[in-house]
Amino acid sequence: MEGRRAVLDSIRRIVRAVKLSSRSSESTVGLSAAQVFVLQRLAEHDGLSINELASETLTHQSSVSVIVSKLAERRLVRRAISRLDRRRTVISLSAKGRRALAGAPEAIQVRLIAALGDLSEADVTRLARLLARWTRAAGIAGTAPTPFGEGETSPIG
After folding, report:
1. Neighbours of 116 (CB within 10 A)
2. To 10 degrees, what angle do helices 50-57 and 33-44 make?
3. Per-residue pLDDT tens over the stretch 107-123
4. How many whole angstroms separate alpha carbon 79 and alpha carbon 94?
5. How far apart are CA 149 and CA 106, in angstroms?
6. What confidence tens digit (pLDDT) does each residue in 61-81 have?
7. How far apart are the C-alpha atoms of 127 and 130, rounded to whole Å?
8. Does residue 40 have a pLDDT over 80?
9. Domains with residue ranges and CATH for the chain
């Protein structure tokens, strides 16, 4: 029984941290935590394709595409044809996006991903398998995994 509670308490802490991060970024800069995370990744690696940005954020390409569209509508990012490969579209921070990011808190995703990096590859693999098994058993494995901090609170962005 204690082990089950410890698992659920850990999940509760993650959910709470994501909610607090989202509220903080929304109240500070008017962006969801997921939008701030994408902007932070672009600040580190400017000129990424959607697929590269999905890889950087450890999320699905379609989820990143939706976030980038919202950011582009607000002129926080810009899309351009790559100079090296005309078939490729790259995403870059705009000056407005850099200004917004300057006042933004660090996205919780940065800490969560860094903490996964502190685990051994065997532990990460075991954790992934156990979580997949648990979500299947709970009947939620087919639920779309939306990015952390996107859509959990108010629909800003």
Report:
1. 13
2. 110
3. 899 999 999 999 999 99
4. 10
5. 12
6. 999 999 999 999 999 999 998
7. 5
8. yes
9. 2-137 (1.10.10.10)
| Torsion angle in degrees (nearest 10) through CA of 126, 3, 141, 147 | -80
Q: Is the pLDDT of residue 125 over 80?
A: yes
- Run of H or E residues at 136: helix 121-137
Q: Tell me: the pLDDT tens digits for 16-35?
A: 999 999 899 999 999 999 99
Beta bridge partners of 93: 77
pTM of the model: 0.84
Q: Are 40 and 106 in contact (CB under 8 A)?
A: yes
Q: Which residue has the tokens 């089950």?
A: 4
Cα 41 to Cα 73: distance, rounded to the nearest angstrom:
18
- Residues making up the chain, counted from first to last: 157
- Kindly state the tokens that stand for 114: 């860094």
Rounded Cα distance, 94 and 15, in Å: 31
Handedness of CA 21, 101, 57, 72 (dihedral sign): positive
Average pLDDT over residues 37-50: 93
Least Cα distance to 67 among 28, 105, 107 occurs for 107
- Letter for the amino acid at 88? R
